[in-house]
Design goal:
about 0% strand; mainly alpha; 9 helices; about 80% helix
Length: about 230
């Protein structure tokens, strides 16, 4: 019963949620809406538990002077300070324009977030260097497409690409076409087709996993094993 009851509840709730998309009858839609709202409440409690766990872990590390403990102080101070301002200073209007929490978000969190993503650019450049090693025909096509897109998205793209296309062996339509038009076609047609194929594959994978959970085939969420 320790495993059968969770499996039964998962199957019933999963079936109700799936039927809720196709059957607008109140017997199905009302329980489905209730379950969705319950999930939102559970997620909210999860955030609270996550914050409490974060405080516990980092306060213990600070008390033991573990590695990088000064940075943990900054993290704890930032968490407690933001929560205190939101609860005791701004109150219900913590998301209003001009609220102090919004000032913290716009002037502290957003610049730090932008800094982190700016640092990722170096890792992306390193990954691109490895990906663009032309060893196969597919890698060559990828490198050419990437070069066209990068050059086509900068104002000087046509000027920089002129030495590459101004040759007799290059087709006339390619010499006369603006690089921006070519890169836009690459983004709209091949790139979009590949992206949609990946999204469709991911959606089918999600559906297959959901069916496995509803049917009780996938039981890893119970703790693994049989």
């Amino acid at each position: 019963m320790k495993r059968e009851i969770p499996l039964f509840l998962t199957a019933v709730i999963g079936a109700v949620m799936v039927l809720g998309f196709f059957m607008p009858h109140p017997w199905i839609s009302v329980p489905a809406d209730f379950l969705q709202q319950s999930a939102v409440i559970v997620v909210a409690f999860g955030y609270v538990l996550g914050g409490a766990n974060l405080l516990r872990v980092h306060l213990e590390a600070i008390s033991r002077r573990e590695r990088d403990w000064p940075y943990r102080i900054v993290l704890v101070a930032g968490l407690l300070g933001t929560v205190s301002v939101g609860l005791f200073v701004d109150g219900p209007g913590f998301q209003a324009q001009g609220a102090r929490t919004m000032w913290i978000y716009n002037n502290i969190y957003a610049p730090m977030n932008a800094t982190m993503f700016s640092l990722l650019a170096f890792f992306i450049a390193s990954a691109a260097f490895r990906a663009f090693r032309i060893r196969t025909i597919e890698a060559g096509l990828l490198a050419v497409a990437a070069l066209v897109v990068m050059l086509g998205r900068v104002p000087l793209g046509d000027f920089l690409a002129r030495p590459l296309t101004d040759h007799a062996w290059v087709p006339a339509w390619l010499r006369e076409a603006p690089l921006g038009t070519i890169q836009q076609w690459i983004m709209d047609v091949p790139q979009n087709a590949a992206k949609r194929a990946i999204l469709i594959g991911a959606a089918m994978g999600v559906m297959a996993t959901g069916l496995r959970v509803i049917l009780g085939i996938e039981r890893a969420y119970l703790g693994g094993g049989e």
